[in-house]
Amino acid sequence: MTDTLIRLAHISRTFYLGDSQVHALRDVNLNIQQGEYIAVMGPSGSGKSTLLNVLGLLDRADAGEYHLAGRDVTTLVADEQAQVRSAYVGFIFQSFHLVPRLTAAANIELPLMLAGISPDERVRRVKQALHDYGLDARAEHRPNELSGGQRQRVAIARATVMRPTLLLADEPTGNLDRVTGEEVVNLLEALNAQGVTLIVVTHDHALGARARRQIKMDDGAIVSDTSPNIAVEAVSDESP
């Protein structure tokens, strides 16, 4: 892999809670190549989800630069960010985030509609996605009529129906039993094998170990990175 998909330079993000400051990201520097499979790990409050939201243009850094596919997306206005997200990024969440009143097929179709894809092409892509994820018989079922695994498969189909370059998964197996979680991870890894860049935030060390690169965070900073091209940073000044 030689193409750099993501470059973060000195990214910081601070939240204000009353009179308190929370430094969610502290001077984060990170390069990610097209096609990588990365697990982002660390304790609660370490900045994992904030990093994912910045990468997915759901949140904006207070300082630093973010280049995605060679484009500086740091200062894009909201409409421009939405266009970039639609073109490049798919999201998968622990709690699925499906629209309750929509069927499985309609949930999958939603990003295609928002992107202005033609009706005929929408029908073709949704039908293919339902088939690819074993959901043909569940196309007209609403989320409350689906199992957890089926809901997550709908969520993955929705996240990938726009054929994103980057797939961001925040605790994708957190609400699933072990067997169903394994099925979901296999689906994500199959997408990565097809060339999709996969970044997974997880507390599950077994899931994290499956990734080819592990990034560990603590207190808003990257404290270790298994990438062979990046030196591991010390957790503290006393660390070797």
UniProtKB/TrEMBL annotation:
<dbReference type="InterPro" id="IPR015854">
    <property type="entry name" value="ABC_transpr_LolD-like"/>
</dbReference>
<dbReference type="GO" id="GO:0098796">
    <property type="term" value="C:membrane protein complex"/>
</dbReference>
<keyword id="KW-0472">Membrane</keyword>
<dbReference type="InterPro" id="IPR017871">
    <property type="entry name" value="ABC_transporter-like_CS"/>
</dbReference>
<dbReference type="GO" id="GO:0016887">
    <property type="term" value="F:ATP hydrolysis activity"/>
</dbReference>
<dbReference type="InterPro" id="IPR003439">
    <property type="entry name" value="ABC_transporter-like_ATP-bd"/>
</dbReference>
<protein>
    <submittedName>
        <fullName>ABC transporter related</fullName>
    </submittedName>
</protein>
<keyword id="KW-1133">Transmembrane helix</keyword>
<dbReference type="GO" id="GO:0022857">
    <property type="term" value="F:transmembrane transporter activity"/>
</dbReference>
<keyword id="KW-0067">ATP-binding</keyword>
<feature type="domain" description="ABC transporter">
    <location>
        <begin position="6"/>
        <end position="239"/>
    </location>
</feature>
<dbReference type="GO" id="GO:0005524">
    <property type="term" value="F:ATP binding"/>
</dbReference>
<dbReference type="InterPro" id="IPR003593">
    <property type="entry name" value="AAA+_ATPase"/>
</dbReference>
<dbReference type="Pfam" id="PF00005">
    <property type="entry name" value="ABC_tran"/>
</dbReference>
<comment type="similarity">
    <text>Belongs to the ABC transporter superfamily. Macrolide exporter (TC 3.A.1.122) family.</text>
</comment>
<dbReference type="InterPro" id="IPR027417">
    <property type="entry name" value="P-loop_NTPase"/>
</dbReference>
<keyword id="KW-0547">Nucleotide-binding</keyword>
<keyword id="KW-0812">Transmembrane</keyword>
<keyword id="KW-0046">Antibiotic resistance</keyword>
<keyword id="KW-0813">Transport</keyword>
<keyword id="KW-1003">Cell membrane</keyword>
<dbReference type="GO" id="GO:0046677">
    <property type="term" value="P:response to antibiotic"/>
</dbReference>
<dbReference type="GO" id="GO:0005886">
    <property type="term" value="C:plasma membrane"/>
</dbReference>
<dbReference type="InterPro" id="IPR017911">
    <property type="entry name" value="MacB-like_ATP-bd"/>
</dbReference>
